[in-house]
Design a protein that fits this description.
The protein has two domains: about 1-40 and about 95-140 and about 335-485, FAD/NAD(P)-binding domain (3-Layer(bba) Sandwich), CATH 3.50.50; about 145-210 and about 220-330, 3-Layer(bba) Sandwich (FAD/NAD(P)-binding domain), CATH 3.50.50. About 30% of the residues lie in helices and about 20% in strands. It has helices at about 15-25, 40-45, 75-90, 180-190, 215-220, 225-245, 255-265, 270-275, 295, 355-360, 395-415, 425-435, 440-445, 465-470; strands spanning about 1-10, 30-35, 95-100, 105-110, 115-120, 120-130, 155, 170-175, 195, 205, 290, 300-305, 310, 315-320, 325, 330, 345-350, 380, 415-420, 480-485. The strands form five sheets. Strands 1, 2, 3, 4, 5, 6, 17 and 18 form an eight-stranded mixed sheet that branches. It has a five-stranded parallel sheet with strand order 7-16-8-9-12, with helices on one face. A three-stranded antiparallel sheet has the order 13-14-15, with no helix packed on it. The longest helix has 22 residues, at about 395-415. The protein starts with a strand and ends in a 20-residue tail after the last strand. Pfam families: Pyr_redox_3. This is Cyclohexanone monooxygenase.
């Protein structure tokens, strides 16, 4: 049995960031558990053709580990993967990581006050658990009749089979979301025929992507403050979008104009233009960026299919209009389990219920996206109501890390053995989140999206400016929690104090 103070599950941006910040503050008794063989998480697993980030490179990095050598304004998957591993090497975190270690179950043991973590490489016990698994880790397959009986090649975008040669093949792509709009232009270049199955047309804006010159990279590296100023400017511009998304959807009218111009520029056929034009407001679903998607759909070897899929046969796909299209391979680009992740079933709280069971009755709820009542000593990274529709998740992750590290400083000072957010605090916080989202484009934009849970609440997104989230996570507010000490404190050390700030800020 392996016993540690802190177990970190996941070695992507969240888990790696947590390990670095703990290490920098003198907390060395931790282990990172990951099912893969190197750092990267989502950016290690998603290797499909065209994989890239929709957030500018300078924002998509840790503030404490800026990269002056980004090759482009929007980085591609291999470069982001290299960056993450470079940072991990810099802080020598490979030695603190157990690779190829699949976490199969985690359960809080009230008697010992520890998390019991079962893995493919044995059991671990930890006083505290940081779940850095992320929302985009469990691929979601479409619920389509007959798909399991397809005899050709089939794989999800997040589990790309690079050994299968698609050149000249008849290929179907199911989905037109973020991954699909990157995959489709690449496949269109080499397949014999490509059928694109669209359920809902997305808004796709031009992608302001370009390579950085050697002079720019030199300036980022050698001119003091230049890269941070560039990063701050990009951040500020994106924060303006957040106001429109949350409070004034009509402000996003310029995005609709840009989206329609992008369609007109990329597609010559009027009927096809109409088919790819969304009938809901910009921002209601994730805003996508591409300069190549529409021209790809306009190619002679590509067909956009808007009729619903009726079934998958052994050799192809049949749509509701009765048309059967034979294919050699099916690429599933239907996203991930976000509000219903299978991971939640394997996190068992103090009363024996899993996180999935708790959220089945309440909806996805946490306090500041980080702690959940009924799950002592557990910290979620990128938890409920922390997602974004306009800027970098790394900023949100670093905000959570501030909160996390401040807790462990207090834990060390007062020898706190157990911490659990109060149910009334969690409830009040989430009521406030939903109230702030009432005027948002996600509620008023006329679309259905994975942003909402089964209760109709928007439980994935943060409302408004991200600097407000940074503000409320700057310090750990003990007043919001029930805590107990591991020892009787002497007269010099006092008792665990209550935080002065409002728990509803």
């Amino acid at each position: 049995m392996n016993v540690v103070k802190i177990a970190i599950i996941g070695a992507g941006f969240s888990g790696l960031g947590a390990a670095i910040k703990l290490q920098q503050n003198g907390f060395d008794d931790f282990v990172i558990l990951d099912r893969g063989s190197d750092f990267g998480g989502t950016w290690r697993d998603n290797t499909y053709p065209g994989a890239a980030c929709d957030v500018p490179s300078h924002l998509y990095s840790y503030s404490f580990a800026l990269n002056p050598s980004w090759s482009r304004s929007f980085s591609q998957q291999p470069e982001i993967h290299r960056y993450i591993n470079h940072v991990a090497d810099k802080y020598d975190l490979g030695s603190k990581t157990k690779w190829n270690t699949e976490v199969t179950n985690t359960a809080w043991d009230e008697k010992s006050g520890q998390w019991v973590i079962d893995t493919s490489n044995g059991q671990f016990r930890a006083d505290f658990m940081i779940a850095g698994v992320g929302p985009l880790c469990e691929p979601k397959l479409p619920d389509v009749k007959g798909i399991e009986g397809f005899t050709g090649e089939i794989f999800h975008s997040a589990r790309w089979n690079s050994d299968y040669d698609l050149k000249g093949k008849r290929v179907a792509v199911i989905g037109t979301g973020a991954s699909a709009v990157q995959i489709i232009p690449e496949l269109a270049k080499k397949v014999g025929r490509l059928d694109v199955y669209q359920r809902t047309a997305p808004w796709i804006l031009p992608r302001a992507d370009r390579p950085y010159s050697s002079a720019e990279n030199w300036a980022f590296k050698n001119i003091p403050g230049y890269q941070r100023a560039t990063r701050a400017t990009i951040y500020a511009a994106h924060e303006l979008v957040s106001f429109g998304l949350t409070h004034a959807p009509n402000m996003l009218a310029a995005g609709k104009i840009a989206g329609k111009q992008n369609i007109a520029k990329g597609i010559s056929d009027k009927k096809l233009r109409a088919a790819v034009t969304p009938n809901w407001k910009v921002g209601c679903k994730r805003i996508l960026l591409s300069n190549t998607y529409y021209p790809a759909l306009d190619q002679d070897n590509v067909e956009l299919v808007t009729d619903p899929i009726k079934e998958v046969t052994a050799t192809g796909i049949v749509t509701a209009d009765g048309v059967a299209r034979e294919v050699d391979a099916i690429v599933v680009a239907t996203g991930f389990h976000v509000t219903d992740s299978p991971v939640f079933e394997h996190i068992i709280g103090k009363d024996g219920r899993s996180l999935a069971q708790v959220w089945e009755s309440t909806g996805m709820q946490a306090y500041k996206g980080t702690t959940v009542n009924g799950f002592p000593n557990m910290f979620l990274m990128v938890g409920p109501s922390t997602g974004l529709g306009h800027t970098s998740m790394v900023y949100m992750i670093e905000s959570q890390l501030n909160y996390l590290v401040d807790y462990f400083k207090l834990q060390r000072q007062y020898d706190i053995a157990r911490v659990e957010v109060r149910p009334d605090v969690q409830r009040e916080y989430n009521v406030g989140i939903q109230e702030n989202l009432k005027s948002s484009v996600w509620e008023t934009g006329g679309c259905a999206s994975w942003y909402k849970d089964a209760f109709g609440n928007i439980t994935t997104l943060w409302p408004g400016f991200t600097f407000n989230y940074r503000r409320i996570t700057r310090k750990f507010d003990l007043a919001a929690y029930d805590t107990s000490s591991a020892r009787s404190l002497n007269s010099n050390s006092g008792t665990i104090p209550a935080a002065k700030e409002s728990v509803t800020s």
